[in-house]
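Checklist before submission:
- one chain only
- standard amino acids only
- sequence pasted in full

Submission:
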Amino acid sequence: MTNTNPIGQRIDWVDYAKGISIILVVMMHSTLSSEEALHRIGWMHEVVAFARPFRIPAFFLIAGLFVSRAMKLDWRDFLDRKILHFVYFYVLWLTIQFAFRAPGYAAEHGALGALQIYLTAFVDPFGTLWFIYLLPVFYLVTRLTLRIPPVLVLAIAAALEIAPIETQWTLIDEFAARFVYFYAGYLFGGWIVASAKRIETHVPAAIAALAAFAATNLLCVKTDIATAPLVSLALGLAGGGAVVALSVLLAKANWLRALHYCGRNSLVIYLAFFLPMAATRVVLVKSGIISDAGTVAALVTLSAVIAPLILHYFVRGTVLNVLFERPARFHLAKRPARNVQPAQ
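Returned file contents:
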């Protein structure tokens, strides 16, 4: 998930935004699963609740920022870079995650039941990997709707988010709830990047806007209206803008470079965070060394973010690098160059 600017150089604030987004996602899974295991909630619950209205919208808004470039690729390159790229990682990490969960599934549902769960994951996203499943779907839908007026596509996407769609199928429900943010990132990407440049020269105004958003978001969360129709859409879009603004300010001040590093390696973290998250949670919960639920959740989050980065560092240049880099044999073969005869 690499975003670059038009001349091929990375944009610092984009990596900050991706870092913030991926950490918020990992924090959510780590905190909720830890609280479930402990049968009580802690102080991290409030942090997760505050981020809920904008956490996933910001993730997909940022993912959509430079989609316009992918739309200019020929179909062969598009399928290779934006569809098969994610399919490879989904299938690989689905299999890895399932291998760890299979004994439990088999004990509860039998061997055939466990196999059914695995096969079902190819038509409906599995566990924490649903982001990776949805991204190529979003890319493909955007490509297939290029001839439709963008305003109409955006309106339909917004209507899907507003509508109370609950089919219990992750693919359908999450597509309806999230596509509008990805498409908004695609449609307004140029404007968002230009606005980010203006934020650099209007720091006090940006800080004031961030404070206003934080207060409004907190009020909506505390009064239980954050998930109401229209309110959720407004908070999601505004929250995405807030993440952009905060990222620009952090990049300008060159603060919290660890966030920037996480953003550069957001795919690594997302793919591999499940295993260290589960292992750390089990150790902390069963040992009882730490009784505070919030602290347990914070430590689980920290482990889930750092461990994948450490793993990535040590597997680079080894055969295990296939965990995070798609091998050449899983790319679409390039078309052979035509042997054009010189003019006589």
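Reviewer check: The chain is about 70% helix and 0% strand.
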